[in-house]
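Dear H.,

Thanks for agreeing to be a second pair of eyes. The structure we're designing against is below in token form, covering all 298 positions.
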């Protein structure tokens, strides 16, 4: 006999209150997903655990054949030792990386958002041609433009300067693409209302579009910040002076050192990724939301 609507409603309410279902296949599927997520979380966190564990250990604990989950003697002094090392200007490198990453993020977001909005909203006969030309640069290998960029920076006298490390990397074709696709789907009604009030494209962008597009700005900013912080080859070639080293370049000196200090290497690596972890934890929800809302349809 078929259940009445009232009975189905009671069953649904009971299932909602308990959060469970009597179907064993559904429960088994949920349990399997929980196990898979737990295993993936452990695998993801394992490198971070190793960095912190070995960074706070002695050389003997790191190389000991008998592994212990925690070091036998936690060396908190390793935190100060790595900053006191004269061969590793870690404090200066962290400052340089912060300045470069923040400046690159702000400049890239500014330029790419303006370019994306212009391509999406400002009527222009050759807008699609310009857009596809920008996309075409994504197919050019970085190695092809590396030498000409270095020659240009060297000619301008920007070697071992923040200008040489920041300015050539400001514009991102990928960021421009994300912004352009997002602005194509931005509600035109809001912009039309702004134009009725007498606002042009410039003031409409800053007063209407930007305040209502925080998710995509946060998503692109997070991606650009992580990329700028992790950049290695360009800072290695341009930052030839120790005072212009980034944290990635400073860490690379461990691989060329005659005597490898393992605990300093691990603790320095842990310190270097701490800003990235903080930024990602705070803004990671915007990455998916911003990219999803940007779309990929023309």
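And this is the sequence the design step returned. I haven't edited it by hand at all.
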């Amino acid at each position: 006999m078929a259940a009445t609507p009232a009975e189905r409603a009671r069953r649904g309410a009971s299932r909602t209150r308990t959060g469970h279902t009597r179907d064993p296949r559904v429960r088994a599927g949920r349990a399997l997903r929980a196990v898979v997520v737990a295993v993936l979380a452990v695998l993801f966190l394992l490198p971070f655990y190793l960095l912190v564990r070995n960074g706070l250990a002695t050389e003997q604990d790191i190389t000991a054949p008998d592994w212990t989950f925690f070091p036998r003697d936690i060396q908190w002094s390793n935190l100060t030792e790595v900053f006191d090392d004269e061969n590793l200007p870690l404090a200066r490198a962290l400052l340089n990386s912060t300045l470069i990453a923040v400046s690159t993020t702000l400049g890239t977001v500014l330029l790419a958002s303006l370019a994306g909005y212009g391509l999406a909203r400002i009527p222009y006969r050759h807008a699609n041609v310009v857009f596809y030309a920008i996309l075409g640069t994504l197919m050019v290998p970085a190695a092809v433009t590396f030498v000409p960029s270095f020659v240009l920076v060297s000619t301008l006298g920007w070697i071992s300067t923040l200008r040489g490390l920041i300015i050539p990397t400001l514009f991102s074709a990928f960021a421009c693409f994300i912004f352009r696709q997002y602005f194509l789907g931005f509600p035109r009604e809001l912009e039309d209302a702004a134009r009725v009030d007498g606002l042009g494209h410039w003031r409409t962008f800053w007063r209407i579009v930007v305040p209502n597009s925080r998710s995509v700005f946060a998503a692109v900013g997070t991606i650009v910040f992580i990329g700028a912080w992790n950049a290695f080859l360009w800072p290695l070639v341009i930052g030839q002076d120790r005072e212009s080293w980034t944290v990635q370049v400073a860490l690379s000196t461990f691989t060329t050192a005659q005597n490898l200090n393992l605990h300093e290497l691990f603790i320095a690596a842990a310190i270097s990724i701490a800003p990235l972890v903080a930024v990602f934890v705070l803004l990671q929800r915007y990455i998916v939301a911003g990219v999803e809302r940007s779309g990929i349809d023309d």
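Two observations from my side: Residues 262-294 form the longest helix (33 residues). The chain has 15 helices and no strands.

Warmly,
E.
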